[in-house]
């Protein structure tokens, strides 16, 4: 018997129709085959509209990380459709998925994954290098993002010079840099 994840949408009703940002339709993710087959996700459906919050909860082994990896375009479903901004990304190739991750998604990892040799500003600017954003615009956007999270006075600090909470805010700034 497979464990299940529960997906909860924002409890606040929204009278104004918002655009659909994420839509999962009949998503399955199966690892292995035969006797070693593991159904990590089975017939998952989810719709998240602009401005909504969503949490994915469940016991260990229930498919939460698998669902997040698919939503984050880090993995593909075995079957089903995943629409991100109404674009079916479920079957895209690696190059197109990398472009989608760079342009449309921001990640805040549990361990933050900041590069220790870079300053807070440089850590936030780094994903924009891969997006071919000009150096001036990278710096401007990273400065704005760090200011938004209350770190305007820590732009030139390296991760080891920041508290855990400040490092987390650098990771958030990196995710919202756009």
From TrEMBL:
Lineage: Bacteria, Bacillati, Cyanobacteriota, Cyanophyceae, Nostocales
Top-level taxonomic group: Bacteria
InterPro entries given in the database record: ABC_transporter-like_ATP-bd (IPR003439), ABC_transporter-like_CS (IPR017871), ABC_transpr_LolD-like (IPR015854), MacB-like_ATP-bd (IPR017911), P-loop_NTPase (IPR027417)
Gene3D superfamilies: P-loop containing nucleotide triphosphate hydrolases (3.40.50.300)
PROSITE patterns: ABC_TRANSPORTER_1, ABC_TRANSPORTER_2
Name of the protein described by the UniProt record: ABC transporter domain-containing protein
Domain ABC transporter as annotated: residue spans: 22-178
Keywords of this entry: Transport
Name of one Pfam family that matches: ABC_tran
